[in-house]
Write a structure and sequence with these properties.
- The protein is elongated.
- Helix 3 runs antiparallel to helix 4.
- It is an all-alpha fold.
- It has a domain of 36 residues.
Length: 95
Amino acid sequence: MIQHISRISCSAAIVGLAVPLLLSAPSSAQAPAAGNTCSIQAKDKKLAGAALNSFMTKCQKDAQSDCNKQAAEKKLSGAAKTSFTKKCVSDQVGT
């Protein structure tokens, strides 16, 4: 009986430690793959001039919208939201 309780306690402790680690892992939208930033996409497409400006403007607006949604989901406000959004957009745009 004591061994059974000990196993349950140990399992509960492992789950208790694992959940916060999973929740703190960054989402893929916050940290895009290295080859998926706006800047790299523009270079891959060999954009220049007005096409580059248009692409980067749209990409930055899309990133801003996506990051604002993420901040809302995380219930961030004030300086925390500003900081999160700034880094998120920078990571997605590739600046």
